[in-house]
């Protein structure tokens, strides 16, 4: 298993706790993910869990396992239950001997892209630590990850490259924002194109 496996699990479970607090009327709220309301973000998060789980089991090359449209209705009907089931699926799939060396097919990164399991789980770790924050600030809920999770997250997240490709449609992250933060999680958020000060009020004023 990757060295950060326990911290990855903690981050995913933290995202489950945050999503469990989502109320139905909040699903139309805008999020820090430009162009996505909360229902769309949760649908994406649910689909990605199942996609990574399929990749861990050797089926990642099938584009259908990543398709978010499959979960639109389920998320609308039961966001917390649908999301928790997806999180359980991916954690079970990752809890396998030798998973860090196993090849993961990742068609979202390009045709025939295959990466080692440790790298794929690293991407997943970064995604869900940040998406948990996205959901929390969207609904105005408190959010904090344990120090050991942030310490494990920082080198993985800061290794994500920046560049013109982040301007492309479908890029997982916007361009990195300038940072003078001493808070490690805030540095991660800025490196991944998030403003740590984002709020619903901010979104309304700026149109973000």
What would you note in describing this structure?
This is Mycothiol-dependent maleylpyruvate isomerase metal-binding domain-containing protein. By secondary structure, the chain is mostly helical. The chain contains 8 helices and 2 strands, in the order ααααββαααα. A two-stranded antiparallel ribbon has the order 1-2. 36% of the residues are buried. The C terminus is likely disordered.
CATH class assignment: Mainly Alpha
Beta-strand content: under 5%
| Biggest β-sheet strands, sense, barrel | 2 strands, antiparallel
Number of strands: 2
Q: In percent, how helical is the residue content?
A: 40-55%
Count of runs of 4 or more consecutive helical residues: 8
Please state the overall shape, judged from the principal axes of the Cα atoms.
Answer: globular
Strand order, sheet with most strands? 1-2
> Considering the protein shown, what is the CATH homologous superfamily?
dinb family like domain
CATH structural fold name: Four Helix Bundle (Hemerythrin (Met), subunit A)
How much is the average pLDDT? Answer: 91
- Please compute the radius of gyration using only Cα atoms: 16 Å
Q: How are helices and strands ordered from N to C?
A: HHHHEEHHHH
User: SS-based structural class?
Assistant: mainly alpha
Instruction: Calculate the terminal CA-CA distance, rounded to whole Å.
Output: 38 Å
Which ranges are low-confidence, i.e. pLDDT below 50, for 5 or more consecutive residues? 204-208
